[in-house]
Input
Amino acid sequence: MSSDRAGGPPAPRSEGLFERAQRSLVGGVDSPVRAFRSVGGAPRFLVRGKGAYIWDADRRKYVDYCMSWGALLFGHADPAIVRAVRDAAGRGTSFGAATEAEVRLAEEVKKRFRSIDLLRFVSSGTEATMSAVRVARGFTGRDKIVVFGGAYHGHADALLVKAGSGVAAAELSASAGVPQSAVRDTLVAEYNDVDSVEDIFRTHPNEIAAVLVEPVAANMGLVPPERGFLSDLRRITRDFDSLLVFDEVVTGFRVAPGGAQEKYGVTPDLTCLGKILGHGLPVGAYGGRREIMERVAPLGPVYQAGTLSGNPLAMAAGLATMRGLRPDLFRRLEEGSARVAAGLRDAASEAAVDFQVPRVGSMLGLFFRPDPVRNFGDARASDVRDYRTFFWSLLTRGVYLPPAPFETLFLSSTHEGNEIERTIEAASAAFAEVRNS
Ligand SMILES: *Cc1c(COP(=O)(O)O)cnc(C)c1O
Output
């Protein structure tokens, strides 16, 4: 059974640190998935990263496919990013006042995201989506929002929902401490299912402020949008005077310099950014059409503020990141990622393991099931024990996957020939282990 190998080879330093951590930190971690609960065993405590590699407290080296959940487009400790952050730190870590770096980064973002006239920097993706929802409500004067089952938009109250029974039914809070009243106006549709969205709009024609969508779903594993899905959302929201909000916290600067809206040619009213925008520094942003964003304080009545918003270190990292977004980068990411996906697919088929590896640019999903995944229901029908076996088998062989099923693998510009070869070789052995488990 797969659980036999949960934990992999002994890792005394990580295990010791985890024990110690649990005496002071909730569950030993600062974000739940890091605790390895979904794969079992002790989390690896990391001490260093360089390029595509990370090292743990037991001095083991791994090719990293978590990449800080996609934030590190240029890999760990990229020299240009490190230099920019160091220089900025020497000039002051925070002012709580206006700086030129914010203006410059805003201009760089606008150059790539043509749908954004005005934006606001915040300190996390959670803050970006939470604020975008507030603006959408403030602008439309409506309270309801539509999200998709299996999506993740951070941990704001209104966005922590799980689909109840049947679309447009009363939705359920997905966390203790989130009152039913906070999610009463959050309606859950099915990803890649336009009918489910239309049904909701027909039931609540004048009540929906916005549809909030990950244009490429990256938090139920990776689920690409089917042809026409995003443009249908654009049409429906327009027809009902509702806003279309793209949560591009993952896809922004990842699937194209201008994110999924550039790749798929669909223009949202509001966009949320994060992750790559700060390349590992805490940052988020939300922005969009002028008339909507002009509702935000100090121009308008929608209040939103932050002590560390537009933080100089985060802005410096963001500016260095923008400088690195060269055209050939995306071609190289595409090629490397296609090689990884093809290598995994071949290795799985060689081992006769049911396996799907959807890919959008440098993002990959791993599903242990025979059929393609269109939505959260399909994703959940994949074999999570196989993922667990695969995870530990790869970790033992020096490849670090996200420590939970239903996550996305991210490549960086530093995942090159050697790293890819090493990954595919390890995966061949891991698939054999899955088959024999
Ligand atoms: C990570 C993520 C968020 C939340 O960002 P945080 O910085 O973790 O708060 C929001 N939306 C999506 C799509 C994400 O993947």
Q: What stands out?
A: The chain has two domains: 12-64+327-436, 79-323. The CA atoms of residues 329 and 413 lie 7 Å apart. The chain has a mean pLDDT of 95.
